[in-house]
Amino acid sequence: MNKYAVIVAAGSGIRMGGTLPKQFILVNNKPVLFYSLQAFLNAFSDIQIILVLPVDYMDMGQEIIDAYFDKEKFRIAAGGETRFQSVKNGLELVEEESIIFVHDGVRCLLTEKLIHRCYASAVETGTAIPVILSKDSVRIVNDEGNDAIDRNKVMLVQTPQTFHSKILLPAYQIDYKEKFTDEATVVEAYGLKVTLVEGEQNNIKITTPIDLLIAEKLINDRN
Ligand code: C5P
């Protein structure tokens, strides 16, 4: 089966502070994005990467590809205002029937095992959404106040969210809604159920400075 990884790295990273988007910050002398890309290239020798970048950082993205990777495996798309639009722009470059991984460029700690698990589920069921259980107690806020909910029934959603192209490409023809924070919500709005697969505790989304410290430590330990 053909394989594409759409790596969305077009966010501005406001929550991190500073000006350089978090996907370009160096961890052990390499940009965060490098580790995410390498995981997919290590997982499958025949995978094609579609890298979605902020318009102002296209050159920086190209420099990362030139420095570390075989550029034949890459195509670049410009990001949009929302994550949904960035994914949609990336999907326009998918050329054939395939399994498509959509991954946050800032989740640089995922393993090849997780990528393979998502692939197997997407081949079998058409979809794969990696999730982990919440370690914390969970409450939901409503008009009356707030209520506890059973944390064993709460799943935290990660990427790579993985789909057969026959599902993901038509699903993304839908009009944007604010609730589309990931691909699963888009595919559900298209009328399909999604399959959950086991995610990874270390597959954190680098969002705030503490996440960067954790990533540094984990990458150091790996090396
Ligand atoms: O904003 P959030 O933390 O949900 O971003 C998750 C991923 O989506 C990040 O890798 C970010 O770069 C990407 N993104 C994007 N285009 C946007 C917003 C976010 O590619 N407009």
Précis, in short:
This protein is an alpha/beta fold and about 220 residues long.
Description of the molecule:
By secondary structure, the chain is an alpha/beta fold. It has one domain: Spore Coat Polysaccharide Biosynthesis Protein SpsA, Chain A. Helix content is 33%, strand content 25%. The chain has seven helices and twelve strands. It has helices spanning 32-43, 58-68, 83-91, 112-125, 165-171, 183-189, 209-222; strands at 2-8, 26-27, 30-31, 48-53, 74-78, 98-104, 127-133, 138-142, 145-149, 155-157, 161-164, 196-198. Strands 1, 4, 5, 6, 7, 10, 11 and 12 form an eight-stranded mixed β-sheet that branches. Helix 1 crosses helix 4 (112-125). It is globular and about 55 Å long. The relative contact order is 0.18. Bound molecules: cytidine-5'-monophosphate.
What ions, cofactors and ligands are bound? cytidine-5'-monophosphate
Tally of separate domains: 1
Q: Which band does the percent of strand residues land in?
A: 25-35%
Biggest sheet statistics: 8 strands, mixed
CATH class reads Alpha Beta
Helix and strand content put the structural class at alpha/beta
Q: How does the overall form come out from the CA principal axes?
A: globular
* CATH architecture tag: Alpha-Beta Complex
Poorly predicted parts: none
Provide the succession of SSEs. Answer: EEEHEHEHEHEEEEEHHEH
Number of helices: 7
Number of strand segments: 12
Find the CATH superfamily: Spore Coat Polysaccharide Biosynthesis Protein SpsA, Chain A
**Topology-level CATH name:** Spore Coat Polysaccharide Biosynthesis Protein SpsA, Chain A
- N-end to C-end Cα span: 32 Å
Query: Whole-number average pLDDT?
Result: 96
Helicity range: 25-40%
